[in-house]
Design goal:
With 141 residues, the chain is of the alpha+beta class. Helices cover 40% and strands 35% of the residues. A hairpin with a 2-residue loop joins β2 and β3. It comes from Saccharothrix carnea.
């Protein structure tokens, strides 16, 4: 990573932090990544410069973890993923059940704080809504 890449990604993470702080307490990790919690959904934001003029933010939300490894629940999550405009759902099968994440990456260089906060909140709101739906489907809500 060049000094210019580091500068651009740091500026973008600062803009994302300021946008998120309109709604959440934000923690800045040692590597500059941001973490916060929306409702009961932990989220992390990272920035990457893919090319000059193309710096993206990557938002990952851990929607649910240790869900019952139930085929119907996995199918429901997959169907829900197809309906979403803001993010890609991932289902990981573990020894303890299923974990579900929502990831969204988008070009964000030059976005002002208000539209950036709106876009980030659309994603995390989708994640918390999905969490509620999944937990209701398992009887854990």
């Amino acid at each position: 990573m060049t000094d210019q890449d580091a500068k651009v990604t740091a500026e973008l993470l600062t803009a994302a932090r300021e946008a998120l702080e309109m709604f959440h307490d934000v923690h800045v990790d040692d590597d500059g990544a941001l973490s916060f919690q929306h409702a009961e959904v932990p989220c992390a934001v990272q920035a990457m410069r893919l090319a000059e003029g193309l710096t993206v933010l990557s938002l990952t939300c851990v929607v649910a973890w240790d869900l019952p490894d139930d085929r119907d629940l996995a199918v429901s999550a997959a169907e829900r993923a197809g309906q979403g405009l803001f993010g890609t759902l991932g289902v990981v099968h573990t020894e303890r059940g299923m974990d579900v994440t929502l990831r969204y990456a988008f070009p964000a260089e030059g976005l002002k704080p208000e539209p950036l906060s709106t876009l980030l909140m659309l994603v995390v709101s989708t994640a918390s809504q999905l969490r509620n739906e999944l937990l209701a489907g398992t009887g854990s809500a």
